[in-house]
Amino acid sequence: MTETAIIAKDLIKEFKTRKGKITAVDHLTLQVQRGETYGLIGPDGAGKTTTVRVILGLLRRTQGESSILGFDSMRSPYPIRERVGYIAQQFALPADLTVMENMQFFASVQQVSPEQQKNRITELLAFAGLSEYPSRLAGKLSGGMKKKLALACSLIHEPQVVMLDEPTLGVDPVSRRDFWNLLGNLRTEKGMTIFVCTPYMDEAERCNRVGLLYAGKLIADDTPEMVKKRVPGALLEFTPLPFVPAQRLVEGMKGVLEVQTYGARLHVFVDDAHRRKNEISTALSAQGIAHDEIHPVEVRMEEAFISLIRREAAQAPSGSDLARRSTA
Questions:
Q1: d(CA 12, CA 65)
Q2: Looking at CB atoms within 10 Å, which of 31, 87, 255, 261 has the fewest?
């Protein structure tokens, strides 16, 4: 049995429009190993949903290769559907069906026998924390409970791989954490392979590996720790007042590699944390700009994400599709 669950090689997906062809996925190559949680991240319009749909065989690829569990996405869609659970970005449960009826409906779609349904539905409702709500209409569930029910429905046929397209979008932080705890249990207890697109960088931190997609290109593919190490320099954080003059001042200083904003705080990448910390403090004071303590912090996925995207956009040739997308 192959240890690789998902493969894409030089994958291209083009769409024809009135203005010509748009390349949504551009020579993408990645591999996801069995039992791994892989997170695909990227800004809106990067091509995440298209990538998932092509790998699943829901869209025809233009060029390249794509397969799941050894089954080609184009030539073997039915064996893939038998072995994969999928929650689409716009996944909608029938609101007028109860929790139990939804489970039974998706079980029948996946051709799970009535005998098998009894135990599986009981187990999945317990797993998702929905055992107390079998008679509640899906339309009356909270956002977090709807996501848990969607996950339970996608698992009814005992898939080996689960592919999730922004499954927690619009859900409160506590429900997102609960949902990811469920995913962690799936991987630990079942050895399930999980491929998830997410806009949330804290969720990306939970993945074994992440791929950063920008304008259809995979510009990073590694563990979260290694992706963060691709950002040069040390990171300093402080809160200045007034904010905008401080940002403009710091951006022009020697040794400052990059400046990012984070709420009322400035995140400043520098070549030498100790030296630049003192210089920044002195420069701010000279201009009458107050600030709290300037202190070093660990780089998170969010800072790495912004920095790598900026770098990629800056390197794009002027007038190219990549450059146009970066300003869209």
A1: 9
A2: 261
Q: What is the DSSP string of 153-170?
A: HHTTT--SEEEEESTTTT
Asked if 214 and 235 sit in the same domain, the reply is no
Q: Considering the entire predicted model, what is its pTM? A: 0.89
Tell me, what's the pLDDT at 90? 78
| 216 & 107 share domain | yes
Same domain, 191 and 304: no
pLDDT score, position 305: 94
196 and 264 housed in the same domain: no
Q: Which of 202, 227, 252 is the last residue of a domain?
A: 227
Strand 161-165 vs strand 84-87: parallel, antiparallel, or unpaired? parallel
What pLDDT, on a 0 to 100 scale, did the predictor assign at position 61? 97
3-state secondary structure of 81: helix
Query: How many domains, in total, are found in the chain?
Result: 2
Of 227, 251, 268, the residue at which a domain comes to its end is 227
In the beta sheet, which residues pair with residue 87? 164
Query: To the nearest whole number, what is the mean pLDDT of the chain?
Result: 92
308 φψ region: left (φ > 0), alpha (ψ -120 to 50), beta (else): alpha
Q: How far, in Å, CA of 57 to CA of 76, rounded?
A: 8
The vertex-240 CA angle with 236 and 246, nearest 5°, equals 90
| Same domain, residue pair 197 and 269 | no
Can you give the CATH number for the domain in which 77 is found?
3.40.50.300
